[in-house]
């Protein structure tokens, strides 16, 4: 018996919905136990689900997310998305490109976020 | 004396212009000697500039390229772009997301192209 291939586009949708929920534990639950997270690319990676949950604990304000473009190749994907965060009177918008790998169960095994400070706009 | 950081967005522009030229040697010249190329992600990587030039030797028809979005983090980048190829009466369009790493001289040290056959349209 072979395992059905996970639906990677659905997994990306679940990830963006979890980020928009603002609940770090929900986001971390989508990662494999021993996953790594490098955000932004070039920074020291966070390793393991506890460290990953702590990273998403930084989510604050009212968050919305929107998938703009996704490209899937097997169990890897690259996708462009928009994150809008409202905090008080300020609204911050950023559109990173994330690269993720997944395991056969559809859990995220690594995430690398491509963006630079100049890609963020405030209004 | 420290080396000035290479202009990665300019390097991406040079790459897309070289692809549009259709000349494999021009594209391969932008890669480091020992670079790797994985296109699409999940396929066997091509290693070294000679193998990379052979890969781009498959370019045919009248090609145009357009950068849609680029995200740069240090010496790594992810970018969404459009390639339109006219061959005879057919026009093929694909918009991959490429992930590249560069060396201090601005040469491409690795390229991974995220796309799937269903991302290509023909008209």
From TrEMBL, chains A, B:
<dbReference type="InterPro" id="IPR032710">
    <property type="entry name" value="NTF2-like_dom_sf"/>
</dbReference>
<keyword id="KW-0413">Isomerase</keyword>
<feature type="domain" description="SnoaL-like">
    <location>
        <begin position="14"/>
        <end position="110"/>
    </location>
</feature>
<protein>
    <submittedName>
        <fullName>Steroid delta-isomerase</fullName>
    </submittedName>
</protein>
<dbReference type="InterPro" id="IPR037401">
    <property type="entry name" value="SnoaL-like"/>
</dbReference>
<dbReference type="Pfam" id="PF12680">
    <property type="entry name" value="SnoaL_2"/>
</dbReference>
<dbReference type="GO" id="GO:0016853">
    <property type="term" value="F:isomerase activity"/>
</dbReference>
């Amino acid at each position: 018996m072979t395992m059905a291939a996970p639906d990677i586009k659905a997994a990306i949708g679940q990830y963006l919905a979890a980020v928009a929920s603002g609940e770090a534990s929900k986001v971390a639950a989508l990662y494999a136990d021993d996953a790594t997270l490098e955000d932004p690319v070039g920074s020291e990676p966070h390793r393991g689900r506890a460290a990953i949950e702590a990273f998403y604990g930084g989510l604050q304000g009212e968050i919305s997310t929107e998938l703009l473009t996704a490209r899937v190749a097997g169990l890897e994907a690259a996708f462009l998305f928009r994150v809008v965060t409202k905090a008080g009177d300020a609204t911050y918008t950023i559109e990173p490109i994330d690269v993720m790998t997944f395991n056969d169960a559809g859990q995220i095994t690594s995430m690398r976020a491509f963006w630079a400070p100049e890609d963020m706009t405030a209004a």
